[in-house]
Amino acid sequence: ESRTKILVIVHDSSDISNPFLYIMPGVQLAAENLNVSLESCSVASLLSRPADESARQIRENGFHGILWFASNFNGNEPLIETLRKTDLPVLLPHAGRKDQQITGFSTMGTDYRKVMEDGLRYLAAQGHRRVGNISKDDMRGITAEEYFQCIRRVGLDDDPALLSLTGNEIQDREAVIEAAAHLMTELDDPPTALFCFSDFFALHVYEYLHRENFRIPDDVAVLSIGGQIGCNFLKPSLSAIDFGSLDIGRSVVRFLLEMICDKRRIPFIVTPHHITERESTKGLAYHQKYRKGNQL
Q1: Residue 108's closest CA among 273, 260, 276?
Q2: Residue 228 and residue 221: Cα distance in Å, rounded?
Q3: 107, 95 Cβ separation under 8 angstroms
């Protein structure tokens, strides 16, 4: 029985925030169940030959489709040309609409505007009014204007001081801690909840809050985006908007098989997300009356 053969292209990166680490187990499970053969290859390996030669080798090796774990394209990446020359279906498992437009490849991705709104609505429903947001400068493609429109739509305080941007490094510990300290100690009316750009931001926020003896969630609730780092093991356990990385991995294989069998391209597929509530946001604390156990 012949097996569908898929080439998995990965970047040379040991970064723990790389989505590949969390999505790939689902890809492997689905491949095993669906009789699909996976073969991994680095970008550097494919770029070691001219584009025509690499594309020809991919075809001659009997691959039926390609998964490329990459995002944030600028259009000048040389591998784009190589993969176009294969004439095989290419799927980007965790990227954005702009990546699809730039590359022309089918793309699966999160609707970050919906993620942001769902998170803010959840915190508003918990009784919070002042929510601090600690984010990278690019805010996953959401502009500050769009963010504050969303804040007003869900009924939260639109004080600009509650949005704290940290630059564009995913792992800038000092910048995240500085942002948390600013929000919690330098505002006349500090936030009662912190919404973190990622689980990795939340780890640094936890570090700061524990060090300064803020109680989570009594003094300030914490919600992150990702749900990828063992949120149950943090103390208190971390509430997160979960991408469902394992489910994304399973879906990736199914969608690529559809593209191979039907000989069609699917431009953009929105992957679902959900909020997993844990201890860091549970229970409504009466922040208007109490902060750190002292009556104001």
Answers
A1: 273
A2: 19
A3: yes
pTM of this structure: 0.88
Q: Using CA atoms, how far apart are residues 203 and 226, in angstroms rounded to an integer?
A: 12
Go through the domains of the chain in sequence order and give each one's CATH number: 4-110+243-272 (3.40.50.2300), 112-238+278-295 (3.40.50.2300)
List, as own/partner pairs, every contact residues 204-211 make where C-beta atoms lie below 8 angstroms and the sequence separation is at least 24, other chains included.
204/173, 204/176, 204/177, 204/180, 205/134, 205/176, 205/177, 205/180, 206/234, 206/238, 207/173, 207/177, 208/176, 208/177, 208/180, 208/181, 208/184, 209/180, 209/184
- In whole angstroms, give the CA distance from residue 111 to residue 124: 20
Amino acid residing at 79: L
Using one digit for the tens of pLDDT, what is the confidence trace for 160-176?
A: 999 999 998 877 999 99
Q: Which two tokens stand for residue 143?
A: 């502009």
